[in-house]
Amino acid sequence: MPDLRLMKGNEAIAAAAIRCGCDAYFGYPITPQSEVMETLMDMRPWETTGMVVLQAESEIASINMVYGAASAGKRAMTSSSSPGVSLMAEGLSYLAGAELPCLVVNVSRGGPGLGTIQPSQADYFMATKGGGHGDFHLIVLAPASVQEMYDFVPLAFDLAFTYRNPAMILADGVIGQMMEKVELRPPRPRPTDEEMQKSVGSWAVTGKRNRRRNIITSVELDPAVHEKFNQKLQAKYAEIQEKEARYEELLCSDAQYLIVAYGISARIGQKAVELLRSEGVKAGLFRPITLYPFPAKSLAARARQLKGILCVELSAGQMVEDVRLSVESALPVAHFGRNGGIIHSPNEVAEAMKKLKTNCE
Amino acid sequence: MNIEEIVKPENLAYAKSKTLTDAPMHYCPGCSHGTVHKILAEAIEELGIQDKAVGIAPVGCAVMLYSYLDIDWVEAAHGRAPAVATGIKRTNPHLHVFAYQGDGDLAAIGTAEIIHACNRGENITVIFINNAIYGMTGGQMAPTTLLGMKTATTPQGRQANLNGYPFKVSELMAQLPGVSYVTRQAVHTPGAVRQAKRALKKAVEKAYAQKGTSFVEVVATCSSGWKLSPTEANRWMAENMLPFYPLGDLKDN
Predict the structure, then answer these.
(1) At the top level of CATH, which class does the domain A3-184 belong to?
(2) Which residue from B minimizes the CA distance to A62?
(3) In which residue ranges of chain A is CATH 3.40.50.970 found?
């Protein structure tokens, strides 16, 4: 019998962290994701799995505590929302520069500035184009349901450790706050000392018993050596782009018009596709699951049969840039978005698509 | 007589700590960092904790500290060492974790991190090098720069109305219940060096015994930043720094 629960997206993050063997959570309260730490504190995993949960003095401290625990090879995570993730930019750059795995959850809200506590998808650029100084990328997963909030926690940790790179779950205030049915997966135990030694022993700082000392750093003053390191990082990102792009398609086999959307916009887009189909428009939905790497090749392949693409986001148009790059101007690509915490209705998305269709004909 | 005939186990009075690597140190002549590194290495060796010590290196002149001590190291972002140390120690209580920070790193950009790590009573050791100046970036004013002291950003001397007051960090840390040991040391004389090493060993042992945070300030020289010879820097420090930053234990619970 599957273990089914009704949960908020933020609660699913907490439950998944405990059940997938996460070693530590460090966080700072910010709406609309405070339930992550509240749920963890309520569940007291330090008494069961041994997971550490600590409320830090700031997001800057949170991400640096994650950096410390990750340096020791631990599965460490934090969660925050947009303004808090801005504060983590320095730490994320250091994590990427030191090639440390970790998980950062951004339940994003409207900006810029203090903005609003209402949902938004305006952190796409920050998440996928770096979000800190230097040439680096996060691996970015975009859940569109509470089940995916749960399932992407272990997936993000696995990807982070495979590539020794920070991973981010980029959700939005709707996915974080809404309640849905979730199947709790069987618990995965935290790794034993022997398993840890095997997987991270070559680099983690665990005390230099019976080996050379390990050093976690991102500083390199010799330009030739540092260029080589940067090339190594870029080769890693190329491999990630080649192997890890994930996406989902809905009603795409005969589609002429495609909605491209992630997160809550994909759920609304799904309803808009139904509305359009009922009016005879051959519409489909393409949902990037990884925002970095962006599933560019698959989208370009699908675009060959299309007449137009509508990119739907809760932003002024961020992912639409990657959509246009993917299809290289082979067909019209329009953007439809709302800002400031307003969530688009399926009807207005359908109307935007019909306008695009008229322009294409 | 060759060196082997002179250096024999029976007449060996002193040797380089095994915890110190052979990497040539990059510090200026007269800089206190090298001496503090040396006594830190000796303290680690004498406590027998080389295999379970993890150090956090700062941003500043000691950024390459991990080159000099043969233990595991993490290089932290500017000011963040206490948070990084917290992350390591909380997930690895069996390790000896210490953060090594300068005055700009700890007392300016990292003020929040040090106060809250200490206030939580993290079982770590913090080594705070106070030379009243930013050494690596070229001698700018630090939070601990004395009133009247000339630096690259206070060319007329630090003035309270323009630049605020020198910051007595150890006095602040001693107020926090999470901190069990606060001491202010120096390494400008052989006696002070021996005293500072004793304090370091005590600090590391207390943190490991879960007494809370140990905080060791070392009033230090920066001969290049102060534009003084090594000897003059030591004298200037004794005459000007130590009256304002007096040596000794501020708290020992």
Answers:
(1) alpha beta
(2) B83
(3) 3-184
**Fold for domain A247-360?**
Rossmann fold (3.40.50)
* Six token digits for residue A83: 């303004």
pTM metric for this prediction: 0.97
Q: What tokens were used for B247?
A: 């040596």
For chain A, give every residue range classified as CATH 3.40.50.920.
247-360
Q: In angstroms, rounded to a whole number, what is the distance separating the alpha carbons of residues A70 and A49?
A: 18
User: What DSSP state is assigned to residue B225?
Assistant: H
Q: What is the mean pLDDT of each run of 10 residues along chain A (361 residues)?
A: 96 98 98 98 97 98 98 98 98 98 98 95 95 96 98 98 98 97 94 89 94 96 97 98 98 98 98 98 98 98 98 98 96 96 97 96 85
Contact check, Cβ <8 Å, B75/A26 = no
Encode B87-106: b = buried (16+ Cβ within 10 Å), e = exposed: bbbbbbeebbbbbbbbbbbb
Does B113 sit within 8 Å of A213, measured CB to CB? no
Nearest-Cα distance to chain B for A291, in Å, is: 27
Partners of residue A98 in chain B, C-beta under 8 Å:
75
* Domains of chain B by start residue, with CATH: 18-252 (3.40.50.970)
Contact B84 A65 (CB under 8 A): yes
ipTM, 2 decimals?
Answer: 0.96
Q: Which residues of B touch A219 (CB under 8 A)?
A: 63-64, 75
